[in-house]
Structures are given as structure tokens and as C-alpha cells.
Predict the 3D structure of the following.
Amino acid sequence: MPAVISVDASHPHANELPKTIFGTFLEPIGHSIYGGLWAEVLENPSFEENLWSAGAIRDMVAADPDLVDASALGLPLPWEPLNPHQGNRYEPRSGDAANSQQSLYVMGLPNAEVGLRQKVYLPVQRILRYNGAIWLKASTPVEVDVSLRRRSPAAVLAHTAIHSTGTEWKKYEFALELPTGSVKPLEHVDFVVSLPHDERALIDQVYLFPADAVDGMDPDMIAMARALHTPIVRFGGNFTSAYHWRDGIGPLDKRVSMLNIAWGMPEYNQFGTDEFLDFCRRIGAQPQIALNLGTGTPFEAAEWVRYVNRKWNGGRGGLLWELGNELWGNWQVGYPTLDQVASRTRVFSQAVRRVDPRARLIATGQDPDVYEKWNAAQLSGAPGAFDYLSTHFVVGSENILRPNATSEFMDEAEFALPIGLETRLHAMHEQIESYPWARGRVSTAFTEWLFWAPENRQLVRYDNLGGAICTGGFLNMLLRLDGLVPISDMTGLVEFGGIWKKKGRVFGVPAYHVFRMYSPTEPARLVDARTDVAQYDVHQGNRRIPDIEHVPWLDVVAALDAIGSRLYLYCVNRSLKEPVAADIQVAGFAPAGAASISTLHSASVYDENSPEQPDAIAPAFTTEPAGARMRHTFPPASVTVIALSK
């Protein structure tokens, strides 16, 4: 028997669906900003030490063992000698730098070329010209060569000579243009700085950007982010608790590189507040910023609000500000205890509202499976201090309670999680409503959500088709909540469930495509949709929510656009192997012409996109005759959006 989808659009729900459920999330983690959205090609351009944790260094050396010998020569990671056989011709200099704390002294040799290099991937499929700059200082005039080279077989592909004449630090700009066809897409080359003669020079702060960078940002990243139609972008995450916003403003050449404590990686401070606001403008999103309640002060937070308000929306204020991030976790630098959090929330709230009474404040709440005590402390101890309580759900697919669980069971347990979350979110809302001051005034903001798994196992995870099925189920849940959770930020806009850059190529993972199938439709009001279809139960599933009953194999939500001329059906088939044929019955809406159908599907839930095959998994677009009665077959493990026109 086919499933039956019954849609009644004659009485749209009264609540207008908030566009802000399609928010996204941006944090300097991995290569989401540096090496991702930020178009700078080089790592550690200022030759600093102590920018990576020991664990991160271990991983870097495992990926490139030559870095061990390079480090022994005094070269900061990940720089290497141009010619390792020349021995030690380098000295890090502390306290004499054009930028940050350290520069590098390079000593030439007679009748030889001495230099340093870094392996880079360039977007040669898009652009062949690269613009750069270098700071130099020498006691006598020197010639410095910058180039792009093939490592093996050795070949100079593009170079330019810089003649330095000053005895003080001076910035020199340059351009390098590769010959057409000299470098293939996804092929790495070396960026090289060298002394071709027996000369010596201090070098510092080397930049290399594609010539088409947009105010320092990758144009492919901007285009793909704009296509998501995300209404808000959250600038927050674990880095928040030790981030001081003043480090990321002012001239780029003067911003200091430092350790990102949260993630054991560099924070170059090149992408700061102004760059984030510029990015938001370019993609048509509002900023949502998390304030530092770990090592920060109320005055620092208020000044950040003041600074942003001067630069955004004519100074009117009223933006979303998050009072900390996951303050309940001991991985947050300077986290408060349960007894301290409400007081800290209250003090920061007062400081922010003194400079912007219209600011909309999100206090730190707990995850949906463990929220009761923490949220109660916030609600009872900080009345009136916030408009939203945040919640996060970053869940690992491998955390299954059932012994010897099959991969099929693990996948289906993961697909069921949005159904379990829906129940928990209703309970969270009931707790909020039990406090008279918060009733009708405080809502839940779901400011991080992510389905992840270790890379070395076949599991549902953010970057494969299984993660896309989870994303569709999560978005359906948010729609079905009908405004109960008005703010949601998918992790993340760049990397994780969003846009990736690898080997110089930008592409979207399957979850990105699901988000892009949903958000631009701009659903405005829910309509009643009932699906008669088989269901399954999960017991001893994911430890976060192990028992979930009545999970429909086919999950369908229906909504009208703002003017009622388009009806959308958002459909997720959770079955790993079985297609679901469905009879679709539409009342209260007269479909005309053809139904526009977009479907995301692949042979396996573990299939991924990659720089080699960036569009291996992408939506297929088809049409079918539209009418009050239709039949459609949903492929196994798929997400489908059906658009009907009146």
C-alpha cells in the first residue's frame, strides 16, 4: 500500500514562520575562516611561534614529516627550507618585527639561492594572478625574490624581484601570474621567498591573495553563502570565551597573531568585526554575535555592542547578542559555575542594555537532553535579563547504547533524533513558561546543531548524504514547531554541514544542498499535513536520546509562501533501502501547471562530495503534472521539496 499525504491548505496556521530558523553559524575552527572564507593562501604569514597546540602540531607533522627537519632549522611551522641540504641559514628574531612578536632572519650564501617555502593550493580553475606583500628590513640594500614553484620536478612558474633599500621595516607589494595551464586544479605548488645572493635580511608578514579576493574574502565562498538565503549568521562558538574583539580591528598589518585557545590553532585576527559585518552585508544576512563571558568584562562587551551599532543599520541597534557560549562546559575558558551563571548573565545584560536598550539577548542555556538545572538557574536568577535561552545539540553518531548494533540500526537511530528532539523542545518551552516573568517573553534559540562522527568510520556524519538526511529531518522539526523555536543556527556555514574549501576548490557538502533546497523557498505559514505511513521505534539508540517511538519513515511538512501562491512540501524518506510511493491529496489549494521537484539522493548514505567530485551529490530537478491528486515515489534515503503553484 502506498503512503498517503493529506494536505489541507484552507486554514493556514496563524503564526508566521520565522525566517530566522534558517540561520547559520561561523567560527574560526579548522579552515572555516582562515584557509576557507578568508582568501589568504599562506599559513603563519608572520613567522610566529606558539600558534598551535601540541596535538595540532602532532597532526601537522604526521601529514608532512619534513616539518620536523624544518623546525630543527628554526623555521616556524609550516615553513620549510628551499634547499634542506644547505643547513641552517635562518634565525627567528623576537622583539624586532613588523607584525606580532617575531620575524625571520634569512642569511644567503655566495653563488647559491637560500630561501624558505610553503606548500599551497591555488584556485587556478578560477584565477591565475595572485597579489601579495612582504615586509623587509636589512642593514644594506638587498634583492629578495618571491615566486611560485613546482617542487617536483623543480621549476619556477612565476617570480618577481624586490629591491629593498631601507634599513627600517618597509612593506613591498608584488604580483605573481601563472602561465595558462602551468598548474592543474587541485595541484599544490610552493610559495617561495629567497635571497639569490650573499645577502641577509629580516622578513615578516607575507601575504598572498588571489587577485579576485573580495576585501580579503573568497568570491566562491561569498557566492555559495549568498545562495543559501540565510537570514542570520552567528559569529560565536568555543573561541568566544577567550576572544577580545579589539584584537580584530584596525589596520590588517598591525593585527597580532595568537593562539586560538579553544581549537589549538592560529587566530590571525585578519577576519575580525569589520570583516564579519562586511560578509553579512554581502550575503544579505543579519549579524548575531556571541559575547565573551569567559575572560571578558561587561565593559568590553558593551563597547563591542556600541562599535557594531555604529557600523550597522544606521546605529539603530536591536541586533541579536549572545551572552556567552556553552558556559556550562569546563572547556570554556573562564567558565562560571552553576551558582555563578545567572549573576554573570545579569551583569552583562545590564551593561549591554545601557548602550542598546533594543538589543535582543540570548542567554546560555543547556542542551535539550540535560537542560533542567542549568536553565532553571538562569530563569530564576536572572529574571528579565534575556529574551532567549540557547540550546545546542552536537551529537556523535557512534554513541549507540545497543551492543553490537548494525550500521543500519545506527543510521536509523540518527535519523530519528529530530523526532526525539521535538519532544524535548516542547518540554524546555514548558519549563520557560512556568516562570511568570518569562511567559510569552522568552523563547528557545537553537544556536548550534550538528551530526558528526569520526572520519575513519562509515557513519552518518555532517559531510555525507546521511548528514543531509539528518539536516532535512531537523529542518522539518523546526518548521513543525511553528515558531516555538524562532532562531536556529546550523553548524556551520563554512565547513561541517556547509561550504568547504579543499585543495583550492570550493564546494558544498550534501547538507548544504538540503539547506539550499529549503531556505530560499521562504515558507511563511504552516498548513495541516498528515502522512499515513509506516513507522519505526528506536530503543537503545544514540545515548543522547536513546528511546524514540513513532518515527515516520516518510516525514512531510507543508507550508505556504507569504502571499499564498506557492505551496511547498518538505519530504524526508528515512528508509535506507526502500523507496516510498505516496498518494498526495491537496485540499484548499488549486495546483496548476507542473509541480517543481528537487530531490537529493545517492546510492549510499556514506557518499560524499569532494574537491575531485564537488557535485557528486547535488539536487536533481524535475517536473510532474500538478493537481489535487498526485502520486510521487520518494527514493530511499532522500530529501525532496515539491513546489506547487496556485
